[in-house]
């Protein structure tokens, strides 16, 4: 390949890589440019939780395409993707009520209500302080530290050209200007994540794009806790749009504010997933255009204490902490725009980019949009 290709993808996060994967399958010549020398952005910092079920009704067709994309890529590339679903223990009657409403709304293929003993057994904590719960069987788990790097290696071995350590400074009409010269393509798909404003400042400004930072920890996994665990809690019910459409969600939000003011105060979505290295525990949410890099130890401890109580872990052994970051907008979860007829911008502006990635890739390449978004 010279400096020209059928498709030029900006960004080697999961959105860019999924787009490159789909275009490669279509037989296009593909080049991916990234300012880093490997994927190190949001796509490796997260829970590896593909939470299709919890997303809102409008986005479900994209979530379904994303799910097939993940399973297909995992099979072909050879990275881990567990079809173990998500478990949601309910610790109060209102949490259980939201789950009942959600089960009624989505049906048994997507939501299965569990007894207290069933949910306790599934998450490996017989003493779990819950009154019941639910299993969301369609959700998937991947290891975020494995999936994007494996996909990049696999694509590279099959002729996709990766131009690392190279910053794109401007894009229009099929030409990308970079710190190492110009590249041209029939189509350019820009997936710059939280750096959208550097490349397309008007798009970012129109959607009020900012950076969300999240306190995360990796702890050792006790043998009783399943390695493919994905656990959501009441704060997750209050956060994800699918649960958020249920009639009892307002009452649950008020209950959480009274019962868990510290979690609500740091805008927590208390959740846990397992990866081979241990358990990922998070997260809090803070918003800024230029966030400071510091991890608040009180927030980290709060999340660890609450997660440990649910899992029956006495003293968590912390292996790593980090401040994750992703692109956020208060007005939309998803930006897919076409500034000109050869350029597409694709950025997920909430914490659901792993979930939707392969579905967004299909939209970016086909030119389709999501009704209502
Ligand atoms: C702590 C945390 C927890 C999360 N949990 C979940 C979860 O459970 N489920 C879920 O679905 N999602 C989750 N997310 C969100 C998800 O990780 C993101 O939405 C997704 O990874 C975004 O992918 P991306 O490809 O857009 O961004 P990134 O992975 O950040 O990739 C963007 C890439 O673009 C490159 N780039 C940017 N600008 C330029 C430029 N000008 N020139 C060259 N290269 C450029 C960057 O170097 C980077 O490699 C979480 C995120 C975090 C941080």
Q: How many DSSP helices?
A: 14
Share in β-strands: 25-35%
CATH class of the largest domain: Alpha Beta
**Small molecules held by this entry:** flavin-adenine dinucleotide
What's the CATH architecture name of the largest domain? 2-Layer Sandwich
Shape: globular
- Overall average pLDDT: 97
**Rg estimate, integer Å:** 20 Å
- N- to C-terminal separation? 36 Å
Brief characterization of the structure:
The protein is of the alpha+beta class. It has helices at 14-25, 42-45, 60-78, 93-106, 116-123, 144-157, 196-199, 201-206, 234-239, 241-244, 249-259, 261-265, 297-311, 353-366, and strands spanning 4-10, 30-33, 49-50, 81-82, 86-90, 112-114, 132-136, 140-142, 161-163, 168-172, 175-178, 181-190, 210-219, 230-231, 271-275, 278-282, 286-288, 318-328, 334-340, 343-348. Strand 19 (334-340) and strand 20 (343-348) form a beta hairpin.
